[in-house]
Design brief:
The chain is of the alpha/beta class and 277 residues long. It has 8 helices and 8 strands. The strands form 2 sheets. Strands 1, 3, 4, 5, 6 and 7 form a 6-stranded mixed sheet that branches. The termini are far apart.
Length: 277
């Protein structure tokens, strides 16, 4: 059944993130239910549910293994914890990865903030690898079962938010000087496709476009009083709020998921709890 008496006013102050902005872009009603109503609705996102849950937990644990390695724990000790076929393969692929040797500093799980539209914008990065005065590369570890097209990843708000926010709020990683957009790059490293990363360099024109877009998007959300449903009902198949909107009860299948559904199965470090080692 649909909800009556929706709340329509965003909490103040509100911390926007790539996830909340992507939710709004995908479906304003989902943004409303998740971030304004703050509803936790136990609808299954995908079937089979146990397979989906296991994949997400493995992805979460992989992120923790990588983070622990980047702060200095030994490979051998961490490798013993990679105790499933997926984890074992992902971990070995990461151990074989040779992309971090040329940087002056590594900042795993770094969080940056910046004011935006009277609120603030936040991003939690898997890794920022920086050489002050030269470059900063954002690494994001993905455990997607399918490798998405680069064009799709380029359009995601994560790609736009992460690069723009590093330029905006990363001066303390660069001896107090803001990174120039041309010094910034973002790399998605796919644990299932270690030789096929997606690379996104940056330019001043892209930075201006992205920050202007984020500013307009937040202003639109703040002015919004009626959060409409998406017109693309394919997005509803894997949405946990679909029964609120009379958009179906049965969950979509993992095999039938479109590329635009992949984000729902990926690890979201903005929302997960810590794993203890």
């Amino acid at each position: 059944m649909p909800i009556a008496n929706h709340k329509s006013t965003i909490p103040t102050p509100f911390t926007f993130s790539q996830s909340s902005l992507q939710d709004y872009a995908d479906c304003p009603r989902r943004f409303q239910l998740r971030y304004i109503e703050e509803l936790a609705w136990p609808a299954v996102e995908t079937e089979p549910a146990l397979e989906n849950e296991r994949h997400q937990q493995e992805g979460l644990f992989f992120h923790r293994l990588v983070q622990q390695r980047l702060v200095g724990l030994p490979v051998e000790k961490l490798g013993r914890m990679a105790n499933s076929p997926n984890l074992s393969q992902w971990w070995q692929n990461f151990v074989d990865f040779r992309g971090l040797e040329d940087f002056g500093s590594l900042y795993p799980e770094m969080t940056l903030f910046s004011p935006l539209g009277g609120h603030r914008l936040m991003a939690k990065y898997d890794l920022i690898a920086a050489t002050p005065g030269e470059k900063a590369v954002i690494f994001d570890w993905k455990t997607y079962q399918k490798r998405p097209k680069d064009e799709w990843m380029a359009a995601r708000l994560q790609t736009r938010v992460y690069r723009a926010l590093l330029v905006r709020a990363g001066a303390h990683l660069n001896s107090g000087q803001a990174f120039q957009p041309e010094q910034v790059e973002m790399i998605y490293w796919y644990a299932n496709y270690p030789q096929e990363p997606s690379r996104f360099p940056y330019t001043a024109a892209q930075y201006k476009r992205d920050w202007d877009t984020l500013t307009r998007l937040v202003a639109e959300i703040l002015a919004q009083r009626d959060f409409p449903l998406t017109g693309d009902e394919k997005k509803c198949a894997c949405c946990p709020y679909r029964s609120y909107c009379n958009r179906g009860v049965e969950a979509g299948t993992m095999d039938g998921m479109a590329e635009t559904d992949l984000m729902t199965l990926d690890v979201n470090l903005e929302q997960i709890q810590e794993i203890e080692f």
